[in-house]
Fold this protein.
Amino acid sequence: MNGATASDKGLLRPQEAVQYIDLRRYRETGLLGQYVERYWSVHWDLPDGTSYESVVIPHPCVNLSFMPGIGAELHGPGIAVSRHPLTGRGRVFGVKFRPGGFTAYSGVEGAALADWSAGAATVFGPEVDELSAIVMSGNDIDAIQVVSRYLADRVPERPDPRYGRVLAVVRAMLEDRSITRVDQLAARFAMSPKTLQRLFQEYLGLGPKTLIQRYRLHDAADRLAEDPQTDLARLAAELGWSDHAHFTHDFKDLIGFPPSEYAAQCATEGRELVLALR
């Protein structure tokens, strides 16, 4: 179960982001790997009077995050881009559960998780707030050791047999861009579309159609950031949209502006970065 089930894409305008934040990812390879995709941290140190807003296309995952002054929080899969305004100096450390992994781990129904945020103590109890202080007092490696121990001590005694099927379906979505419809996915796993829909609502709180689209939008934004001159109609076809218009609609609906505008933003940032490095 330890292969990838969530992409490492989704950070918008990455050329700009690397000038302001240091995003680090650490894979979980031990026992917790059946539930936890990875650990992550964001570090920033901005000059006085400056600010930066990090914008991320959401992943279909629950995150457990630790931040000074705020403590431990849980955030369910978002239904819109997440915005994180940053100033001064700081660090956030987090745990990204696999899609459906938080429900299989904690027993919290997936149907309640979409766009959900709460103090982690509501699930883990008040001791998680003490853990937060320890996590924030050390470096990332220390935090991983402390948090992984804490979570490993609470792994369910009986694995959820249906959860393995959820991961298999999600992995297929992530790896195979020829899957563009729910009925294709359902047929591959010998279930009806309604059964697949119920399974995803139970574990993730999002439908399979949303995930198919989300992973394709991760790819689209990533491709446009790498090459803002990419032909949009060709990109739409390669990623499985029926036409350019549908691609533009879906991109704008989630991200807030059309792919042509995003490509122009990335092109401008790329030129500014080249000039700054001269």
Observations:
- The beta strands are 21-27, 36-45, 51-56, 63-67, 71-75, 82-87, 89-97, 117-119.
- Residues 208-226 form the longest helix (19 residues).
- The longest strand covers residues 36-45.
